[in-house]
Specification:
The protein is α+β, with helices and mostly antiparallel strands and about 325 residues long. Among the domains are: about 90 residues, Archaeosine Trna-guanine Transglycosylase, Chain: A, domain 4 (Roll); about 100 residues, Alpha-Beta Plaits (2-Layer Sandwich), CATH 3.30.70. Helix content is about 25%, strand content about 30%. It is built from ten helices and 17 strands. Strands 2, 3, 4, 5, 6, 7, 8, 9, 10 and 11 form a ten-stranded mixed sheet that branches. The protein has a seven-stranded mixed sheet with strand order 1-14-12-15-16-17-13. The two termini are about 25 Å apart.
Length: about 325
């Protein structure tokens, strides 16, 4: 971080993300959920909303009812950060059933054709318009082939339809194929190994309500800021006196900046934080890092989406 101005924060306003109460954490929390087969993604987040008595709950990327695995769930104010997280690459394990037993080399050769940029038309039952679009497949591995059953491990761009991919591989093999089972094992930084089931969330919530024991619930619900730190999003850290202006939609002036990341490029997405590390807003840089460092006045970033509640900080902090 580059220090533009030495600044301190008023401990009477705001809260360090790691020191939030459970009630505060529920407003700025993220859950790495291990979704079961059966319910839709919409139904799953609705259950969580009702369970935790929240106003808003959303997810960062739909998976079909019969698909299990990682579903990233955003709570209350964190919902506004969905766009920052939802475009990360995904990883799936799929069981493809080919309609004719073929040599391993034939299957491997066909599958290799689909690594790179591919064209897809979304299935009939999809939440988007059925227009041809380009998606990138970064990697496809074949951990196991057993007769007509082929296990695929796919690393791909968000928005890739694995069922369509399997269907297209079947057409290339000239015998047809269908997807027998699918599991999402990773969504960006969220991995299957760090996910929690609905039962685990329910148990942790009931223990908290009955005994006040927060330990397990805090393991499941993570602060939004903890997630943002692991993403490749540049940061602008502002002084306390600038926080509420930004919460009201104002752009970020250079005189309100205390610290900022190196190599910020004009036009890229950045996140605005307080000196305590609380997320204030998502923004678009209007200056690069060298300009921010040298400028005596001007706007460094345009506020796109406010995440912090208004009046968390006063307009002027002593």
């Amino acid at each position: 971080m580059i220090i533009r101005e030495d600044s301190s924060t008023n401990e009477n306003h705001g809260t360090y993300p790691g020191k939030r109460t459970i009630e505060q954490l529920l407003n700025y929390g993220v859950i790495n959920l291990n979704k079961p087969q059966g319910p839709t993604s919409h139904q799953t987040v609705a259950w969580i909303r009702d369970m935790l008595a929240l106003n808003k709950v959303a997810h960062t990327g739909t998976i079909d009812p019969m698909v299990s695995g990682v579903l990233v769930v955003m709570l209350n104010e964190s919902v506004k950060a969905t766009e920052l997280i939802g475009h990360e690459e995904k990883e799936y394990v799929a069981l493809m059933h080919v309609h004719k037993q073929l040599p391993k080399e034939t299957i491997e050769k066909s599958v290799s054709k689909f690594v790179g940029k591919i064209k897809q038309i979304p299935p009939l039952k999809s939440a988007v318009a059925r227009r041809e679009r380009v998606r990138e497949i970064m990697d496809i591995k074949l951990p196991e082939i057993n007769g007509k059953d082929v296990l695929l491990k796919v690393r791909c761009e968000a928005g890739t339809y694995i069922r369509r991919l399997v269907d297209d591989i079947g057409k290339d093999l000239k015998c047809g194929a269908h997807m027998a089972e699918l599991r999402r094992t990773r969504a960006g930084i969220f991995r299957e190994s760090g996910s929690f089931t609905m039962h685990e969330l329910k148990d942790a919530w009931e223990i908290y309500k009955e005994t006040g024991d927060e330990k397990t619930l805090r393991q499941i619900i993570r602060p939004l800021e903890e997630i943002l730190q692991t993403l490749k999003i540049k940061r602008l850290i502002v002084k306390d006196s600038a926080v509420n202006k930004i919460c009201n939609g104002a752009a970020v002036g250079v005189n309100g900046i205390a610290q900022f990341d190196e190599n910020i490029m004009k036009g890229e997405k950045v996140v605005i934080l307080t000196l305590k590390g609380e997320v204030i807003a998502a923004a678009t840089a209007l200056m690069n890092s060298s300009e921010i460092k040298k400028a005596e006045r001007g706007l460094a970033a345009k506020t796109d989406r406010v995440l912090m509640r208004l009046n968390t900080y006063p307009y002027y902090v002593n």
